[in-house]
Amino acid sequence: MRWTVDVGAATRDRIREQALALFTDRGYVTASLREIADRVGITKASLYYHYSSKQELLVAVVQPLLAQWREVVVEAEASPHSPETVRRTLCRCVDTMLAHRTVANLFLRDTAGILPALAPLIDEVVETNRRLRDWLAGPAPSQVARIRAVAVLDLLRVALTAGATLGDVPDSLVRQTLLESAELVLSGRP
Length: 190
Fold this sequence. Notes:
It is a single chain. By secondary structure, the protein is mainly alpha-helical. The protein has eleven helices and no strands. The protein has helices at residues 7-26, 33-40, 44-50, 54-77, 83-99, 101-109, 111-117, 119-137, 143-161, 163-166, 171-187. The chain is elongated. The protein starts with 6 loop residues before the first helix and ends with a helix.
């Protein structure tokens, strides 16, 4: 059997890695495609072969997080609403955010710069979050249950995007604490 390497895919991966690092470090608006190409060790023309614009590159950087988030929502909606499935869904939410913490931090650090560039995806993101919020609130939710579902999503988002303040905290402790906090908020227990 002969193994082949998709050089184009490997280059696209390196471009996305370096773009994320540069966007996070300098901001989306300030970072240039020339700097990204230099970091990858390719020409700017080669970068354009893979990504036709900085906006397309940003979407490619963010897309894995959004795809995994959609999977969480689809799986939740296909499951009955029970304490076990709520916990499993919360675990998947936290794990997704932890796996994509750098991208999540980019949203917090450079919101003004990246939101206009991600405008084509915003409606989908809002709708996906609405679906998750509605599922977390449960069937025929009270107003309190709906508020708690909103609070849980904000709790997870804010805690995980505060990477600078949680830098020395192990992911396992972040995960455990966020899950406990989210379950407490949803249940209304003190």
